Structures are given as C-alpha cells and as structure tokens.
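User: I'm putting together a teaching handout on how multi-component assemblies are represented. Below are the sequence lines for each component of a complex, exactly as they appear in our records. Could you produce the 3D structure of the whole assembly as structure tokens, so the students can see both representations side by side? Please keep the chain order the same as the input.
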Amino acid sequence: MADIDIIGVAKTFGSYQALKTVDMHIADQEFMVLLGASGSGKTTLLRIIAGLEYANAGEVRIGGHRVDHLPPRSRGIAMVFQNYAVFPHMTVFENIAFGLRMQKILNTEVERRVKRAAGLLRIDQLLSRYSNQISGGQRQRVAVARALAVEPAVLLMDEPLSNLDALLRLEMRAELKGVLQESRTTTVYVTHDQVEAMSLADRIAVMHEGGIVQAASATEVYRDPATRFVGSFIGSPPMNFLPAERQAGGVAVVGRTFPAVAGQGALEFGIRPEDVVRAAEGLRGKVRVVEPLGPHQLVTLDIDGHLFRAVIENDHKIAPGETLVLAPRADRIRWFDRASGAAIH
Amino acid sequence: MKAMSLRNPVIRRNGNFLIGTAVVTACLWVLVPLYFLAVNALSSPKAVIGFPKPAVPQFNLESVHFFATYEGVATALLNSVLVAGLTMVLAIGLGAPAGYALARFDFPGKSAFRLVVLMTRAFPLPLLALPLTVLYIRTGLDDTALGLAFVHTTLALPFSILITASLFLSIPVELEEAAWTLGCTRIGAFRHIVLPLAVPGIAASAVFAFVTSWNEVFAAAVLTVQHRTLTAFLLQSLDVSPLPLKFAGAAALVLPTLIFLFAVRKYLFSLWGIANR
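Assistant: Of course. Below is the structure of the complete assembly, with chains in the same order as your input.
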C-alpha cells in the first residue's frame, strides 16, 4: 500500500529523448493506466518506476520514500512482463514462491501464500506443471500470481494482455480487474489499447512523445480531451475536427456561426462522432460511405472538403451521395487552439 | 526463379539427387576412415599387417592391449587429460563471463571486441612458436601442463566466448529482470535463473574446449619434452612405431572426441543455428 510520486523525471537514450520532464502523482490503491502509442515513453516510465532503467533527472518516491537510487529488489514493487517471464526451469508453484523464497519466508507461510495467489488466479490445478506444459493465458495467470504473492506496495504491469488472443484478452481483462480490485494494490499498467485502458483504469495518463498529455478518469479523457492529440487518439472513431474562424459576435465553422470562445488566435472545432443529430439547421455535408454497425451506422461525410464521421441511429436509411445536415450537441462541442492544440474552456 | 525450379518436378528430382549424392559423399568421407580405424584398432596386429583382409572383421584386443602397455602411453594419456581439463576450466572460467558481458551489456568497442576475439585465431601458431618457447623457458612454464593449457586456452577461448554469448543471448533478459523485481541481486538472479538454464550449453562449450586441447598437436609437440601429451607422443613415435600402435593410438585420440561431440551435439547444433526440432 503506497502512493507514487514522479517528480521531474527525464530520460534520454543517447541523443534520443525518451521522456521529457514528467511529473505525476499516483494515489494509494489507485489503478493508473499509462496509455500511448509505441515510442510515447510509457514503458520507459514504468521501467524507471521499477528500477530496471535509471532516469537522467528527477525523483521517484514510493510511499514517500525516495527510491530512484535503489535497485528493483529494494523498492517494494512487483512486475508483470509482456512475455510473462515465467521461469522455465521451475514448476508453477516454485515460480509463484520465488519472491517469497528470496525473502526467506518460512515454508508453511510460503505454501499458504502460493495457494492463496494461485486460488485467486484459478491456477491451483497447475502448481506442479512447468511453463512449457501450460497455455499462454495460464502463463499470464502465473505471472500475475507470482507478482501478487510477494504482496508488493506497487504492482507494475507492462502490456500484460497484449500477447493473448482477442477472446482470451477480453476474459483476462475482466478477471484481472476483479483480482486487482480485491488486492487493493496501487497499480501502474502500461498499454496501447484504449479500450483496455478505459475498462481498467481509475485514471488514464495519456502519453505522447515522451510526456504526459492528460491524466484523468476515462470519462474525462474521453469527454474533455486536454489537447487535440488526446481527442484524436482516444475514441474509435476519433473526434472530428473542423477549422474555425473568430468573427465579430461568434466563431464561424464551415459557414455556421457558434457563440464566441474566450482567448485569441486561430481555433479548431471538435465534436465526437456520436454527438451530432440530424436536424434542419447545422453542418451540411455529402455522404461518402455508410457502414452499418448493428445498433447504429457510421457515416463518413465530406463537409466543405473535410473528412467527418458521424454515428447515427439506424432508423433512417442513409445512402451515399445524399446531403446530410447534422447539428452538434452544444454541450459537447470542444474548442482547441490551432497552434498549440490545447483545449480552450 | 527459385520458386519456378521448385515447382518443376524434373528439376526438383535432379536437385534431390544432387543433394542426396552430396550427403552420401560427405558421410562416407567421415565414416570410411572411422570404420577402418575401428576395425584395425580392434584386430590382432597380424591381421592389421596381413593381406587380403577377412570379409568379416575379427574382434581382438591384442592391439589395444599392446598400445595400452606401450611405454610412455599411460603418462602421455594422463598428461593429455590434465592439459585438456585445465584448458576446459580456464576457457570457461574466462570465456563465460566475457560471453555474459557481450550478451547483456552495451559498452564502447563491443563490436570491435567481438572481432578481435576471433582475430586471435588469425595468427598461425608456428609463427608464435619460437618467441613463445623462449618466453616459456624464461618464465619456467616450458614443459608444464599449465603452460600448454595456457596456449590451448588461447585457442579455445574465442569459441567459448562466442558460444556462451549466444547462449546467454538466447535466455530472455526479462527472466533476469523478473528475478530482480522479485528480490534478487544481479548475482542472485544469475545463480537462480540464468545459470540453471545455461548449464547444458556451458557444458557443451566446455567439452568443445576440452576437445580442442585434446586434439591439438603443434603447440604440444613444441612446448613439451618430458611431459608429452598423447598427440605429441604419437607424433614423436610415428615413424618408429608399428602400424597396430598407430591405429590403436588414433582410436584413443578419436574416441573421446566422438563421445563428447555426440553427447553435446544437440547444443552445438542449436548454437550453430541449425534447427533440430
């Protein structure tokens, strides 16, 4: 049980800046997901917290104690790796017991804690097997059980589900959430899968080009992206963007006028695909493609030369070539500074 | 082009025939001498010299017995084992840590080091023989098992470094990292995780070093006088010894090599990148 403070942490590999100055607080028992594309620095940050990588600058504190000069074994962490890293020359039991043996814990206690961790992950039947005798999903369970058995202050997970096939990943995701909620361990979880991030996280830290762009709840990251990048990265299909011009008495977006927005400088108008409705007045566009998705249909339009996606109820059939008028929900419109990409409130 | 030739049954059949011929030739190249060696070593001295040979080889230990009791053979054999053993220990003791460093650490000049390691094999031993002998006489290392083992270690070291490096590379670094996060020091993780996984491969590379020393004749002949190894001893007495002794001696040299290589062939194959699944 511990909180994590990351203060001014930066990392370069040669001339490549993997992490710009990062500051972040992760509360005790919080489930924090680091979400980003490959090369965004999320794994580097996780490895710095773990002590597998050393930062060039800054501090890492776990439970208030400075740990950035300590080796991994002295930080009170446990880690689950993408490729599981289950020791091939040990049985499942010895794998789970490994961390406890290193702490020289009594045999009876080791057995009790291994059994409990194995029970939690439902691998009690596999304790005498070797890693080449169990499936990928089971190996993943062993890796998680091994990490939980040492009762770490902080649990670190590096894309733990990305080597599993889609169906198994969905199943493991739900199960992992249950197990981790029960264990109440502070968790930092790295993924590039936004659905995984949203379903698991208390908070999501969206990372881009070595920095944290926004750290907030899944809903907030989705509804109120801090930058244009977050809006375009989160959500499938992503947020729509249209150029906007400030005018006397308002903001013009492809011929429509919206109420004035604070500040100065060129603007961009942003709206989620599902936040538009068909109306008499609104953004006028020509339908290019219609994709029926079951409960609704995904319509790709050309609005004044800009690509625009809308998710629309499927009670009316829409045909390509048709002209559609879409009214954005006023409370869901977001404005971004065109130069910096930052959201304007 | 390649795809076409594979699809064409005539070309493919001819290709198979060529490969088959090559394989058979290569096998005969190795096996025929081994066959004659075995047959003659296990025949009576009379049968070895006699002609024509019997169609079915007889089995007789007289040659072997003659060889084993020949004066100097026993001590030469003992010297060979001693030198090869020392070489094995030195080559692994120095080579495995170097291999681990090559596999796990990035340091300036790493690729240059990898090249230089092999470069040691570029110097012909005869070129070094005279200065080495002089140096050995000055330091008192001449005619000792340890002195010869040093030379053999130099010969075996490049391979033990490169073989163990590829061996350690094949063990995922995440296994070590997982051990560190679970409470191990670097040395602890090596002992608990890397070593158990690497032991068979290290043993294979040790055997390779042993065999390198066991079969080496030039340095052994130059650097030892009283304490000849088996190869040097046989070379010395080649002209004066009868044919049965030569066959028995050759068999004694070949046999341990064959047994060792056969025992560790799986690891050597995988280290040399030959899939044997």
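A couple of points students might notice: DSSP finds eight helices and 20 strands in chain A. The first strand of chain A starts at residue 4 and ends at 13.
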